[in-house]
Amino acid sequence: MSLLNKEMPLLSGEMQDLSQYEGKVVLIVNTASKCGFTNQYEGLEALYEEYKAQDLVVLGFPCNQFGEQEKGADSEIASFCQKNYGVSFPMFSKVEVNGDGTAPLYQELKTQAPGIMGTKKIKWNFTKFLVNKQGKVTRYAPTTKPEALKADIETAIAG
To answer: What CATH class is the domain 7-158?
Structure first.
């Protein structure tokens, strides 16, 4: 079963079939509007703009599990991302990335790319997962700035 064989709701409420991104390079990020890393939206949008014509897609998944830094409703999150960072990549409805309510996509991401010392837990907002065209997953820490992923993205695009 493919990692992207799922349907998930966008912030608009519309269901999005993630399988449309099969064969592309996909950067999946759990986000939050009131986090010390929130300014990474700017770098994520820059990556998306620079590489979308080369089959990169960025997918944002707001999460309120870390310091309650994403309390807003989906419409508020959408407005915040657009107004403050001009986010044009797909943003999804809030998800849980840890615990009993973990979204199936995140269960698979954590299994395929565990963190330091094999932990499957997500440590904080803006943990990033890069999925190459063959479906191989690489995990990056919240402190890793989006622009630091350029070389890995270019390698993944080259395929």
So the answer is: alpha beta
